[in-house]
Write a structure and sequence with these properties.
- The structure is a single chain.
- This protein has about 950 residues and is of the alpha+beta class.
- The chain has 30 helices and 15 strands.
- The strands form five sheets. It has a five-stranded antiparallel sheet with strand order 7-13-12-9-10. Strands 8, 11, 14 and 15 form a four-stranded mixed sheet that branches. A two-stranded antiparallel ribbon has the order 1-2.
- A hairpin with an 8-residue loop joins strand 9 and strand 10.
């Protein structure tokens, strides 16, 4: 799924039925393309937001320092003053301005010199009035936090006012040079703007495509981890943990994509954004289901041929080119055929039957994944053929390119406080009062420690109150600040002594490199930013401080920073506090509210199919609410499960399970149905009872009062399933899945409500009514017809068989594929005639069986060439080998169109060749070392016909 963009040979269909044929559905360049060595970077940093922050810092700092130095020479002023003014413009531009349109970027950067230069003369004049200078610094810090409530420009202005006082005090700026400093700041800002527009131009659409590429990379990881988990000799526990990590990262990436779709200039229009959201949601859900099935399969004894078919199918799915997403169907068909044969065999035991049912489920999910990816990639280049029922509406907020955490919850808590009289001003004054009071306490203490560096304590106050909302977060930031300062001090001192005095260019290089590294790492761990910052500052301190006194200076910095953080934390906890318990309750209340919205949307969707509802969007809102709950519940120090309290862990596990059921419910329930009146009343009772229980849970969080009742509706849902008389088909299957997921959601939340002190009861049953007619489909609303899907499957199988029918080596034959599914396709018939597919479990392995007993100590070699009409000189590809036990060997890269696989024990193997410009091709090879090495040439089908 990560090979280059190719054309999709089938018809692209809209949401409400088949749409017009497209000439091609090409994967966007940022999403497609061959496997790249830096894909792991993209997966760890979806959208490359962290790398962009580091690159912005590098560009802005180099530009600001160079412009400041050049202006100092032109204006005949001290170079240090010019570089400080230019460097401040570059640093603030990189650190505080990340707009995604050039208009907003220009406005913010050109605004910076004004507040900075307005405060600089006052800072220069205050040198002779020490007490007044300290007092103004305290007020400036409080004003910065007050202005933060009024938007980006106001916050930027407040930060530059405070920085102007710091620069004026640190550099002892003369009053008569303030005009020149203004010119330096203005020219430096203009230069930074030009270089950022030239080298860091905002491209939100490209960022979205890179994030989608990160989704594809994580999807490959899920398939790869699932393949490892099926290895009979693997450590299944380790493999399952790896797969779970991949699924968690996949979820973070998809939620991030939803947040990016809400940003300006990202999606072409709301309809396209909604369709992108829908298809990506379904693709993630399919991958999640595959992971769950494989996890259950690791606990069962699956037949060897079924395990082999699943491994081959997952490898093919992993290596299928993006633009040929429909080619996933042969892999799905292969798995389904083997699973069906196991289920139909009379000697199949209970455990084997369970394994076969799970394998067949994996095959169905691969089909779903193929559909979702094909539509999703088509939207990367083309406008949708059918409009979305409801345009996209944002449900996910991002903070630093990640799903929002405690900030949104704390703002809701503050906004919900019902204050009277003068206390109504508390929400506006809380942060400024905390900052001003903490600064007033810190300043005299740090001034007594080192009068020249007293501002270090103020920096500790500022960084503590920015971006934190609970005491745990502030203490965690204290730990990161201390650790980062120590690491940065050690690295900085070593580099300082290595460079030595007088090497200004090397010193500037380390300063810029340290700030660049810190900006890159800030969104990962705050300690990374501190380490890079302190490394840079040590070089700056070395220009004016003897090397022998550097350790003392850095110890004072560590002490001042620590005092500022601890005092600010104490002020926030004691003065107009926002209770951490209230924030935690509000986070869980927001989660309950998101679930209530989803259940209400499901009820409305079933009662009125024309209603403007977004079930997947509502489920994504549940995802975002879960991130907020996790952010609040994050412990200060992670301890082993046996040491820390189990209550919070159990609640988070219940909410995580409920979120998974909510996603499945949203996808399955999005169908048009006509229920008979009696069945409609049953559904209405179920959903109204469910919502009433959620209201009781919400009341518990809102008031803190004990009591309340959770009424379990899962028995009513099972009764409803029993009286439904729907003909078999995709719609009936989805309806039953939706009901089962609703029942599972109810059970998970009943356990959560019980943990939260609610009384859990069961809804009373209703008398069974007479048999009702099946829910009727509304015209055109059932999605793809069965006939259309069958034709698409036949076409895909025919294409796959056509490019796998040639066997050029001894002992080679085709991988068994479902026979009869491509009836009417000449290519498929010819391929089937050339190599008929054997029944599952009966693949002819006489050669391999004999080889096993002939020479067990010897190993064989398979070698050959790869070629296709487009590459007469040989093709580049990866070769994957799967044994008949389902064990995958390490991949081999074909170089110059040649490959060689050594060390194969006697037996049967499936050889899968997949290149950056070819769809996967699978062949069966029997290895018998007594007959010599096997020469097996493989003809690949070009990705672009």
């Amino acid at each position: 799924m990560t090979t280059p963009a190719t054309t999709t040979p089938d018809v692209t269909e809209g949401r409400d039925g088949p749409g017009p044929a497209r000439e091609s559905a090409i994967a966007p360049r940022r999403v497609g393309g061959p496997r790249r060595w830096w894909d792991w970077v993209l997966a760890a940093d979806p959208g490359l937001g962290q790398l962009q922050a580091g690159w912005r810092t590098l560009v802005a700092m180099v530009t600001g320092l160079a412009t400041g130095y050049g202006m100092s020479v032109a204006l005949d002023m001290p170079a240090m003053l010019g570089m400080m003014a230019g460097g401040m413009m570059g640093l603030m531009s990189a650190f505080a301005i990340a707009e995604n349109t050039w208009q907003r970027l220009t406005r913010a950067i050109l605004w910076m010199p004004l507040p900075f230069s307005a405060a600089l003369p006052l800072a220069a004049w205050l040198h002779q009035y020490r007490v007044l200078e300290l007092s103004i610094m305290v007020v400036a810090l409080a004003v910065t936090f007050f202005l933060a409530r009024f938007g980006t420009l106001a916050l930027l202005g407040g930060m530059l006012l405070f920085n102007a006082f710091m620069v004026g005090m640190m550099a002892n700026v003369p009053l008569n040079l303030c005009d020149e400093m203004f010119l330096v700041a203005l020219v430096s800002s203009a230069a930074v703007l030009l270089t950022r527009l030239a080298l860091c131009y905002p491209m939100p659409r490209e960022d979205l495509l890179r994030t989608q590429r990160a989704f594809v990379v994580e999807a490959r990881r899920v398939a790869d981890a699932a393949t490892d988990a099926l290895d009979p000799d693997a450590d299944h526990e380790v493999a399952v943990k790896r797969m779970r990590r991949s699924l968690r990262r996949l979820n973070v990436t998809t939620v991030t994509i939803d947040g990016r779709l809400a940003q300006p200039e990202v999606a072409a229009d709301p309809d396209t954004a909604e369709l992108l959201h829908r298809h990506l949601f379904d693709a993630e859900l399919a991958l999640k289901g595959i992971g769950q099935c494989v996890q259950q399969l690791t606990r069962l004894q699956a037949p060897a041929h079924l395990r082999e078919a699943m491994v081959v199918g997952l490898v093919i799915a992993r290596d299928t080119p993006l633009g040929r997403a429909d080619a996933l169907r042969p892999a799905a068909q292969l798995i389904q055929q083997q699973a069906t044969a196991v289920l139909e065999a009379p000697e199949t035991g209970a455990e084997e039957a369970e394994a076969a049912a799970l394998a067949r489920r994996v095959g169905h999910l691969l089909d779903t994944l193929a559909d979702s990816l094909a539509h999703w990639l088509d939207l990367g280049r083309n406008a949708p053929t059918a409009r979305a029922k409801v345009p996209f509406q944002p449900t996910v907020a991002l903070e630093q390119n990640r799903p929002a955490g405690t900030g949104a919850v704390a703002r809701r808590v503050i906004a919900a406080q019902d204050e009277k009289g003068w206390r109504r001003a508390i929400p506006y004054l809380r942060a400024p009062v905390h900052a001003g009071l903490a600064a007033a306490i810190v300043c005299p203490i740090t001034d007594a420690i080192n009068p020249q560096r007293f501002y270090w304590g103020l920096v500790g106050v500022m960084i503590t109150l920015f971006g934190t909302n609970t005491t745990q977060e502030r203490l965690r930031k204290f730990g990161h600040r201390m650790a980062g300062t120590i690491v940065g001090a050690v690295i900085g001192v070593l580099l300082l002594r290595l460079i030595g005095p007088g090497h200004i260019y090397w010193t500037l290089l380390v300063i810029v490199a340290g700030l660049t590294f810190g900006s890159w790492g800030m969104q990962r761990q705050y300690a990374y930013w501190v380490a890079g910052l302190v490394t840079a500052l040590v070089q700056l301190y070395g220009l004016s401080t003897p090397y022998t006194g550097m350790e003392t200076l850095l110890s004072e910095r560590l002490l001042d920073n620590g005092l500022g953080i601890l005092i600010a934390t104490a002020c926030a906890a004691l003065v107009f506090p926002v209770s951490s318990r209230k924030i935690a309750q509000e986070a869980e209340r927001g989660y309950v509210s998101a679930l209530e919205h989803l259940v209400s949307q499901v009820a409305e969707r079933w009662q009125d199919p024309a209603a403007p509802v977004r079930l997947r969007g509502a489920a994504r809102g549940v995802d975002a609410a879960l991130y907020q709950v996790r952010g609040v519940a994050r412990p200060l120090v992670r301890m082993p499960i046996g040491v820390r309290g189990r209550g919070a862990e159990n609640r988070l596990a219940l909410l995580a399970a409920a979120t998974g059921h909510a996603r499945s419910l949203a996808a399955a329930a999005d169908i048009d149905i006509d229920l008979a009146p009696e069945l409609g009343r049953r559904v209405e009772r179920i959903t109204s009872t469910f919502v009433a229980s959620l209201h009781a849970l919400d009341h518990r969080f809102a008031t803190g009062e004990p009591g309340g009742t959770w009424v379990r509706v899962s028995p009513l849902i099972r009764e409803l399933e029993g009286v439904l008389r729907a003909p078999a088909g995709p719609r009936a299957d989805r309806l039953h899945v939706a009901l089962r997921e609703l029942a599972a959601l109810d059970e998970a939340l009943a356990g959560y409500a019980d943990d939260r002190g609610l009384t859990v009861t069961t809804a009373s049953a209703e008398p069974e009514p007479a048999a009702e007619p099946a829910p009727a489909a509304r015209p055109g609303a059932a999605g793809h017809s069965a006939a259309t899907l069958d034709r698409r499957t036949q076409a895909a199988l025919a294409a796959w068989l056509a490019h796998t029918r040639h066997d050029s080596g001894p002992g080679a034959k085709q991988v068994p594929v479902p026979s009869g599914t491509a009836a009417g396709a000449p290519a498929a018939q010819q391929a089937a005639a050339a190599a008929p597919a054997p029944a599952a479990g009966s693949r002819t392995r006489a050669a391999s069986s004999g080889a096993r007993t002939a020479s067990p100590a010897r190993t064989g070699t398979v070698s050959g060439s790869l070629h296709c009409p487009e590459h007469p000189g040989g093709c580049e590809a990866w070769i994957t080998v799967v044994s008949d036990r389902g064990k995958r060997r390490a991949g081999v890269r074909a170089v110059g169109g040649r490959y060689r696989i050594t060390g194969l024990e006697p037996g049967g193997y499936t050889v899968i060749a997949s290149g950056s410009a070819h769809a996967p091709t699978a062949r069966f090879v029997a290895v018998d070392p007594s007959r010599g090495d096997i020469h097996h040439d493989i003809e690949l089908k070009p990705a672009r016909p």
